[in-house]
Amino acid sequence: MTIEAKLHRANGALTTLSNGRHVWNADVDKALGSDDRAPDPHDLLDSALAACTTLTLELYIRRRQMPVTDVRVTVDRVEEKNDQGGVRYQMQRRIFIEGDIAEEDRQRLLEIANKCPIHKLLSGEIHIDSELA
């Protein structure tokens, strides 16, 4: 699948993203010279983890017909600069599960959350090939 990003320079740094089926936006905050009209790329990355975790859990809960009434996931991030000028990006994911389920089922849901494809991707090694078109 291809994601296309199109910059709209007349609107600061507002960028339209599309996968061919859906359209969404990204932006940067006012301090960076834009109008802060949409989430920034870091928010989009964090939201991908939160959404994937929630959806992975929901699919498992449905299959097992567990008595879960609500699932909510939050992701906070901390960025720390290292001595080499790079950035260490740390995510803190909190999973809130409501329903009358046993502690062992809650622990199983944590295991399932760690199997979400975005969690696995972000926990592994990522290679990006770039070229000018």
UniProtKB/TrEMBL annotation:
Gene3D superfamilies associated with the record: 3.30.300.20
Stored Pfam families: OsmC
InterPro entries named among the record's database cross-references: KH_dom-like_a/b, OsmC/Ohr_fam, OsmC/Ohrsf
UniProt-recorded name of the protein: Redox protein
Naturally occurring in which organism (per UniProt): Rhodoferax saidenbachensis
Lineage: Bacteria, Pseudomonadati, Pseudomonadota, Betaproteobacteria, Burkholderiales
